[in-house]
Design brief:
This protein is of the alpha/beta class and 561 residues long. It folds into three domains: 211 residues, Alpha/Beta hydrolase fold, catalytic domain (Rossmann fold), CATH 3.40.50.1820; 49 residues, no CATH class; 173 residues, no CATH class. 32% of the residues lie in helices and 16% in strands. It contains 17 helices and 15 strands. The strands form two sheets. A twelve-stranded mixed β-sheet has the order 1-4-5-7-9-8-10-11-12-13-14-15, sandwiched between helices. A three-stranded mixed β-sheet has the order 2-3-6, with no helix packed on it. The longest helix is centred in the C-terminal third of the chain and has 26 residues. The two termini are 34 Å apart.
């Protein structure tokens, strides 16, 4: 059981990836060449989609692999902010997948490198490059410590879309390379590097996607899990230097939100302790008033040493879900918390799809809590900002099942498993998704909200946990409920090309109605055993009273949301 859970954790964390057969690289008859003015020329390759009967429109996919969108942060530039790549002469091959960024799990020195700031671009062959296609930029998940541009199957999504579109999958710095919260990095202006990489990619797309046949005015930014948190961060950053400087026209947020989990400041005591241990493991002295030596030590360490330290500290926090290497607020792109930006109205008013899974918390929650005392200890360790009154209210909102009564009685795994999973899932994903949806809808933004309710594994204790919809969203037919993959991916592709998930949906799927207010309509995507696909009222699918508690504005700020 433990081994199975570890394996599943690894699969989801690294990017929700499942290998798909039936896709191969092939040189086109005519060289596939694109010139980006002021940068350089790239030659791509074709991917041929095979062995999938649902791909009837776009089997041959023009592909440009591992195109660098930034100067690479290597050598003396390690930990530097992203910047425009240098101009080059000649033609670069864009025919092979390049290295991924450093991973906290499954590190491979042959495939995980620092020169990883690149993207893969997929478009249907045969569509003139003068026809400006809508663009879907996907940010992978993985807890900000894992994943890659291959976490989303771009050729499959392009191939299954009824209307032509472009998919761009992105790599950004991860683990301690992407966020090393500390006074040292705050003083150097180096916080939140990973999400700054993402913004650099969006700027690159605004300048250059037109030369790949894309429309810079029709860019949908989407992501899952940590990628969805990232989309929320960019969506809620219509202030400061970015005021009215929108780099995308629509958003897709799957199992995430700008207020999902917490983003404490770099001065957070746990982060200070983690940074100190990180430096000690690398043999670097803690910085004094002069930080030159500390930065030199960090830049001189090998990537393997950095990965080992980053991974060890992360693994030690997995049980308590007190992860290191997360974006921080205040910091670049998170100068104020998502809840404050929502209250201030400083977000981009663009059409948005947003979703959560029924049992978000069950994937992460500890499976060995047996008493109310252990439940409280876990929650207050996770959230030190909870005060005594909060704890009393938390116990009332999520009643103790130890006496065999209440909604969390007869829990699998352990007495408190369903209870702690409900509380953690509401805090970290389900209620933040509701908060984002209602804030956008309050400004008359077109919002389409969904609850995914179909397990992709067996009907075990986890139900429908975090990111269960990943392969369905992608359109992968190799899932437990293939017809849901057809329905779900068609909604998303339709939204990307038209702004309306219903314009090119499958014939047998219901109209996805807009979410207009708290308690409003949302799409329930369930297996036949769980009621199928239909519109439900929000209170039929989530814990409304508990979400109202988690969404209290004063409490959100105390919890760094």
């Amino acid at each position: 059981m433990v081994a199975a859970c570890v394996t599943l954790y690894f699969i989801v964390l690294i990017g929700f990836k499942r290998t798909r057969s039936g896709a191969r690289l092939e040189m086109p008859e005519t060289p596939l060449v694109v010139t980006l003015p002021g940068y350089g020329t790239f030659e791509g390759i074709d991917i041929i989609n095979e062995q999938d009967s649902k791909i009837i429109h776009h089997r041959r996919i023009n592909t440009f692999l591992s195109v660098e969108y930034s100067k690479q942060p290597i050598g003396k530039d390690r930990f530097s902010p992203p910047n425009w790549p240098h101009k080059f002469e000649g033609t670069r091959d864009a025919k092979e997948y390049g290295p991924s960024c450093m991973q906290n799990y499954g590190f491979d020195s042959g495939h995980h490198k620092e020169n990883c700031l690149s993207f893969n671009l997929y478009r249907p062959a045969g569509v003139p490059y003068s026809t400006k296609l809508p663009v879907f930029v996907f940010l992978h998940g993985g807890g900000f410590v894992g994943g890659s541009a291959r976490s989303f199957d771009g050729p499959l999504f392009v191939g299954r879309s009824k209307e032509p579109l472009i998919v761009v999958t992105v790599q950004y710095r991860l683990g301690a390379m992407g966020s090393l919260p500390s006074k040292l990095f705050a003083d150097q202006g180096l916080l939140n590097l990973g999400i700054r990489d993402q913004r650099m990619l969006l700027r690159f797309m605004q300048t250059y996607v037109q030369y790949f046949g894309g429309d810079p005015d029709r860019v949908t930014l989407g992501g899952q899990s940590a990628g969805a948190h990232s989309v929320g961060i960019h969506l809620f950053h219509n202030y400061g230097e970015d005021t009215d400087r929108r780099l995308f026209s629509q958003a897709i947020i799957a199992s995430g939100a700008p207020t999902a989990r917490s983003f404490p400041p770099h001065t957070y005591p746990l982060y200070q302790d983690q940074f100190g241990r990180f430096m000690k493991m690398l043999g670097c002295e803690m910085p004094s008033n002069v930080s030159t030596a500390a930065m030199s030590c960090l830049r001189d360490a090998s990537l393997g040493e950095l990965q080992h330290a980053s991974s060890v500290i992360f693994k030690e926090t997995k049980y308590n879900i007190t992860w290191p290497w997360q974006p921080v607020s205040p910091g670049p792109l998170l100068e104020k918390y998502g809840s404050k930006s929502g209250k201030d109205g400083t977000f981009y008013k663009v059409p948005t799809i947003i979703s959560s899974c029924t049992d978000e918390g069950k994937f992460f929650s500890p499976r060995n809590l047996t008493s109310n005392e252990e439940f409280i200890k876990f929650m207050t360790n996770l959230l030190p900002g909870l005060n005594d009154q909060d704890v009393r209210e938390l116990e009332e909102l999520y009643p103790d099942p130890s006496n065999g009564a209440g909604p969390y009685a007869n829990s699998p795994e352990s007495t408190q498993y369903d209870r702690v999973s409900a509380a953690y899932g509401d805090y970290s994903y389900i209620c933040p998704v509701q908060e984002t949806a209602q804030v956008l809808a309050s400004k008359k933004v077109p919002v389409y909200k969904a609850r995914f309710n179909a397990p992709n594994g067996d009907d075990g204790s986890m139900g429908v946990p975090h990111a269960s919809d990943a392969q369905f969203f992608n359109g992968n037919p190799d899932v437990r409920h293939p017809h849901l993959s057809d329905i779900y991916s068609a909604y998303f592709a339709s939204f990307i090309v038209s702004g309306d998930p219903n314009a090119f949906k499958t014939q047998d799927s219901p109209k996805w109605e807009r979410y207009e207010k708290l308690g409003g309509k949302q799409l329930k995507v369930g297996s036949d055993q769980r009621g199928g696909v239909h519109i439900e009222l929000e209170d039929q699918g989530i814990r409304m009273r508990q979400c109202n508690w988690w969404r209290d504005r004063e409490r959100m700020l105390r919890l760094y949301k």
